Amino acid sequence: MSTRYDCRDPQWRSAGVDAAVAAARAGELIVLPTDTVYGIGADAFIPAAVTTMLAAKGRGRNMPPPVLVGTARAAAALVDDLGAFGQDLIDEFWPGALTLVFRASPTLLWDLGDTKGTVALRMPLHSVALDVLKQTGPLAVSSANRTGQPAPTTVDEAQQQLGEAVSVYLDAGPCADNIPSTILDLTGTIPTLLRAGAIPVDRLRTVASVIADNEDLVPSPDPADFKPAAPHPMEGGGAGADAPTDEGPSGS
C-alpha cells in the first residue's frame, strides 16, 4: 500500500522523509521531487530494488539508471577517478542540473544494469531530495514515469503512472522547472556532451574549456533518457544510456 506525504507542511515533510528513508533501506521504491522532474528511486546498493524500479518503469538492464547523491563526497567515493575536470565541475555546478558520467569504482558492490563500468551522477538542487539522500546514501533514480509516457512534474502524474509499485510518495508541489539536466561524459580524455539541458555548454566551457558536442543536440523530451551526441560505453554496442535523472532525475 502506498503512502503519500505533503512535504509543503513541515510536520508531514519530516514524517515523509523518515518514511522514504526507511522504505529505501528496506529495498522498496520511493518517489521524490527533484529540481527537474519527479523521480522514482531505489537504494543503489540493493540490486533487487534497482531491478524492481526498472520493471516499474517498463525498462530492462540495457537502460541503467543514474545515481543521485546528497553530497559531493558521496560522489567521489563512487568513482574510479574524477579526472581533470570532475572536481571543478562539481564545485561550480552542484547541487544543480548537471549529470556527470564517470568510470565507476571497481570496488563497488552494486548492480545498476549494463553500465559497462560507468556511472552517471548528479546532486539535485532540491531540499527534500537532499534531506532524503543525506540519510539513504546514493539512490538509483530515474524519472517517475512509465517508458514512453511524459516525465511527471507533479506527484499526481507520478502516482497515476506508477501506482502501488511505489511505497512512499513525497509531494513537494509542481516542479519549478522541467528542463532536463545537461549530461557530460568524463570517461574519455575530452569531456563529451551527451545531452543538452538546463546548463548551457558555454557555461560548462568556463570550467572545462574543451568539450566535444553536437550543435544540433537538443534537450530530450524524457529527462531520464540520454540522447547522445557521441558513442557512450553505458549502452551495449556503444550507443547511449539512461540518465536522471533526472531525471533525474538521473534521470531527474
Layout of SSEs?
Layout: E1 3-6, H1 10-25, E2 30-32, E3 39-43, H2 47-57, E4 67-68, H3 72-76, H4 86-93, E5 98-103, E6 118-122, H5 127-136, E7 139-143, H6 155-162, E8 168-171, E9 182-185, E10 192-195, H7 201-204
Helix pairs in contact: 1-5
Note down, in words, how this protein is organized.
The chain has 252 residues and is an alpha/beta fold. Helix content is 25%, strand content 17%. It contains seven helices and ten strands. Helix 1 (10-25) packs parallel to helix 5 (127-136). The two termini are 24 Å apart. The protein has one domain (3-204): DHBP synthase, CATH 3.90.870. The longest helix has 16 residues, at 10-25.
Question: Descriptors for this entry?
Answer:
ten-stranded mixed sheet; alpha/beta; 252 residues; 10 strands; DHBP synthase; disordered C terminus
Give a concise summary:
The chain is α/β, with parallel strands linked by helices and 252 residues long.
Please name the CATH architecture: Alpha-Beta Complex
Task: Summarize the biggest pleated sheet.
Answer: 10 strands, mixed
Mean pLDDT: 87
Sketch the topology as an H/E string, one letter per element: EHEEHEHHEEHEHEEEH
Task: Kindly identify the CATH topology.
Answer: DHBP synthase
**How far is the first residue's CA from the last residue's CA?**
24 Å
Give the % helix.
10-25%
Class per helix and strand makeup: alpha/beta
How many distinct beta strands? 10
What does the overall shape look like?
A: globular
Sheet with the most strands: spatial strand order: 1-8-2-3-7-4-6-5-9-10
- Uncertain segments: 218-251
